[in-house]
Structures are given as C-alpha cells and as structure tokens.
Amino acid sequence: MVEMSPHGGRPADPSGRIGIGLELDNTHLKILEVLRENGRISVAALAERVGISRANAYTRFEALRADGAIKRFTAEIDHVRAGLGITALVFVTVRQQMWKQFRAELARMPEVEYCAITTGQHDAMIQVRMADVAAVHRLVTERMANIPAVKATETVFILDEVLRRPYVLPTDRDGGRDAGRTGRRPAAPEPAEVPLGKMRFVGAAEGRAALRKEGG
Amino acid sequence: MVEMSPHGGRPADPSGRIGIGLELDNTHLKILEVLRENGRISVAALAERVGISRANAYTRFEALRADGAIKRFTAEIDHVRAGLGITALVFVTVRQQMWKQFRAELARMPEVEYCAITTGQHDAMIQVRMADVAAVHRLVTERMANIPAVKATETVFILDEVLRRPYVLPTDRDGGRDAGRTGRRPAAPEPAEVPLGKMRFVGAAEGRAALRKEGG
DNA sequence: GTTGAAATTAGTACGAA
DNA sequence: TTCGTACTAATTTCAAC
Q1: Is the CB of A53 less than 7 A from some atom of nucleic acid strand C?
Q2: What is the model's pTM?
Q3: A10, A138, A168, A169, best to mutate vs chain B, most B CBs in 10 Å
Q4: pLDDT exceeds 80 at position B156
Q5: pLDDT tens, position by position, B201-211
C-alpha cells in the first residue's frame, strides 16, 4: 500500500515495455492540474473545466489511472487536529549491505510518513509525525537505534510547514518567473552573476551506488 | 492555495475560539483512514466501510471538512511520468530579519513542492521537482542565490523514494510494534539499552525563535 | 472526439427510534 | 445523535452521430 518500487519505477506493462506508457498531452496535464487541486471533482465537472466532452474526460481519466500517472487519490489530513502535533526529520546513516533490512524495518513503522534515499552526508531522510517530542525521542533512541542497519541518526524538528503543494507538474513552470523571460536556450545557461560558493551541491557518500543495488 | 498559515494553524472559527474545534472520536478517525486511502470514495460506500448510516456519514464528512481536519482532497501524480524525473532537497540558511521576503519568493516558485522550517544546522528544507539535474542547478545558482534572504544553500538529490504515506494518523500506532508491548508509562521510558551517542538531536540555531516571529 | 438520452448513483430532507 | 426512508438532483454509461 505504501511501498514504492525502487526509483519510483512502474510495473512493466503487459508488453514488457518499460518506456513511456502514455504520451501526456496538454489536455492530460490540464486534467492532472484540476485533479490535484480537487481530487473529488466529478468527471463531468472535470470535463467542463478542462474544456472537453464528458466521454473524452472519462476515457482520459481512466487512461491516466491505468497508466499510473495518477497513483492514487487521497485526503490531506490536518495532523495537528488528528493528534500528531510534532513533525520531525530523521537523517539516517545506513550500514553498508543492510539496506534491505532497513527498508523492512521502515515498513513496520506506521508513524513514518515519508522516506527518501539521498545523496550527501546522510543516506536517507525520514519524516515522522508523532504526538509529542518525547515520542520522537523514544522512536529514535529505542526503535531506530535498535535497528542494526542504522549506523547513526540526526534528528531535526519541523517548526513550521510553510507550503505543501499536492504535486508539482511541468505546467507549473508557465506560471513561474522563468517562463519566457528570454529566448535563452535552457541547455546553455549563462554564467550566473550571483554570489557563488554559498551554494553547495553534495554528491553521494562513499559506496552509495553499491548500497542501493543491494537494497533494491 | 498552497500557503499554509504559520504553525499549521487554522483560521479562527466565528466564535474567535482557537482550541480544538471538533472532538475526533474513533468513528471520525476511521473515516479519515478510509478517505486518505481512497479520496474519491462515495459517501455511501464510506458509510458502509465505516459501519454507520449514510446520513451519519454525510454529517461527519461535512463536519470534518468544515472543521479543517480534512484539508483537501488531491490526486497523487507520478512526477516521473509527468516529466519531472528529478527530485532534490535544498537546505537553506536564511538571513535574519528576512523571513518574510524568503516566504514571498517561495510562493513564486511553482517547482517547490514542500517547504518546512526546521531546527538544526539549516533554517529551512525545500523539496523541488524538476525535469533534469541541470534545472535544479539553475534553480539553485540562478534563482535562489539571487534572493537576498538566502544566505547559503546545500543541495542533495533524492535517489529513491522508498515510501510515502498519504497522512499518518494516531490509529496507525495500533498496527505498530510499540502498541501494548508492555504496560510501561509513556512519560517515563526506561533508559535505552542501545548504542547511544549515535543518535543526535539538533536544536534550533542561534536566533531561530526570533526569526520565526518576524517572518510570520 | 462529440452529443444526447437511459440507468444508476449520489446528495438532501425529514420523521422515528 | 443516529438511523431509515423517500425524494430530488446529479453523475455515469452507452448509444448513435
């Protein structure tokens, strides 16, 4: 239910092909745009907002679902109201050769809302929601620390969630500042006229690539 | 549309009261549980799955919506299929007294999917989805670096998203390992029999509390 | 890919337990 | 409060164009 396949890949379609399954045109993107804002809109209303016929909307809606472009529909819950007022990020350093075990343990922790494997100093970032700070402390020092795969953790608390968009789409760029600013080719950005050296990019730590394969 | 009020707070209800608006009982939580798994389920089907009458389900559904416990319904899009194959985390150090400006700039960046203010070495964490690595590089070195409020950034790339749950609920704990393990009081956890020192908790950097007030 | 008409389902209102 | 029912409105499906 919550497990994502490695690399966010989709299950191979019946033909065994792995490439793009469905060419998304502008109409598809418009549909996704509406749906991520209002996941409960009727297909009839959706058709009207996108400017296509009902039957067409049904066809495309089904196609997007079947193709996996729409992964699921969900309700966003106010976690504070639901009794989980504390959010924390746990950055985890995972012991080599133990990714599989780490993933298995993760699946057994329902309080984990999100987990991503990253480049940089740490190997994974986990977001958890808990009732209070003490519960986070207990989770980290009692449960996570007892996972052999976990070499070390670093925990920070989230003080405020400034924004959360349901999902970003390519069309979002049209509303952005970059869109049509100049005719500059995207592949050849001009040298930045900015204070450099303050912007760090952190690559994978030693052996990360190998680790991922093992854990797949 | 995407702006969250500070601290995830909800708008004050007409009475001016800020406290808990709606006492969530087990039935409410069950409804939320179903809804976060299937945001498009009909209220009739919801009533059946929860085990209440349709009328009751409509009443509670509306109450949860009005109360804000359900923030919105949304479709989860496969960002890879949608053409945004690269996900990155940008950790931002924000200049004092400039939070308001930082937030304003954020609102103008549609490629930002999530932003949270955190304790620890950095001040904020931003998650972005882009078409390719070069686009991330451009975003950070051209746009973010040009924001005066941004003192420094550190960027890591997400290699794999292992899991994402729609939203964690308190009832999730029942399925967890902790539930009813012992009768131990939650407020007094026994000293952990674990390798300590590997689990770091990182508090707020200097002046963070003051910064937050200014930016609210 | 569109339109329109039939069948089904959703949403509302109300009285009773 | 919750339930059950009847009523109204809307949606989905299916057909022909």
Answers
A1: yes
A2: 0.82
A3: A168
A4: yes
A5: 998 765 555 44
